[in-house]
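Morning F.,

Quick status update on the modeling queue. The single chain you submitted on Monday has been processed. Sequence for confirmation:
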Amino acid sequence: MSDHVEYRTQQQAAALEKLQANPRVELVRVAGPHDCNTAQTVQGVYRKDDVPMLPVEGCSRPNGCICAYEPVLNDIYP
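Structure tokens below.
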């Protein structure tokens, strides 16, 4: 695994762990570029315990996978 992919994997794992630990987050959205066929296979909203791991394996983007996790919140506070 290249250093860039390893770094990105660690970064995404840490982000997902924070979202899963947050009680205000019920669902997690996986977002990615619309022009990436690989991203299209994982984009969507998931229960926070069923989210696919990022970066997406097999992504062919020149600089690697740029998909990201986004929280879907229960409540929004001021």
